Amino acid sequence: MKKTKITFWIITALFAAFMILTSIPDITMNKDGIAFMDHIGYQPYIMPFLGIAKILGCIAILIPGFPRLKEWAYAGLFFDLIGATYSQIATDGLLPQISFMLLPIALLIISYALYHKINGQRLSIFTAQQLKPAI
User: Fold this and answer.
1) Where are the domains of the chain?
2) Quick check: 77 and 108 in contact, CB under 8 A?
C-alpha cells in the first residue's frame, strides 16, 4: 500500500504541476495564448475562467479529504483536457502534435485510478445497491 500511495502522489503532483503551469498563461492572458484561443475559435475572455478553474481543480485533488469535491475536480479536469484536444483536432485535423495531449490525460486517469485504489473504492458507475433488482 505504501508503494501505491507514493506512486499516487508522484503521478498526481506531476499532473497538477502540468495543469497549473498551463493555467498561468490563461490567467495572465498571454499573447500567445490569446492567439491560440482565437485560432481554435474561442473568445479570449474564457481564458482566465479556465485558468482559475484548473488551479482550483488541482487544489481539490491535492488536499486530503473531500471525496465528492475530488470526484468533481477529476471530472472537470478531464473535460478540460478532452475539450482542448477535441477543439484542436476539429480546427487543425489529426496532427501528430496532438499526441502530446495523451500524457496529461494518462496522468489524470492513473491518478484517478490510484486514488480509488488507496481509498478502497471500486471504479464503478453503479453502486451495488443500484444494481439490485427491484422486486
Assistant:
1) 2-121
2) yes
Residue pair 6/111 in contact (Cβ under 8 Å)? The answer is no
pLDDT of residue 66: 92
Grid look-up 482565437 returns 38
Q: How far is Cα 23 from Cα 49, in angstroms, rounded to an integer?
A: 10
The pLDDT, as a whole number, for residue 39 is 92
- Non-local (6+) Cβ contacts of 50 within 8 A are 23, 26, 80
Q: What is the pLDDT of residue 89?
A: 94
Instruction: In whole angstroms, give the CA distance from residue 79 to residue 73.
Output: 10
* Three-state SS at 117: helix
Phi, psi of 94, deg, nearest 5: -85, 90
In 3D space, the residue among 57, 61, 60, 103 whose CA is nearest the CA of residue 76 turns out to be: 57
- pLDDT for residue 98: 87
Instruction: Show the low-confidence residues of the chain (pLDDT under 50).
Output: none
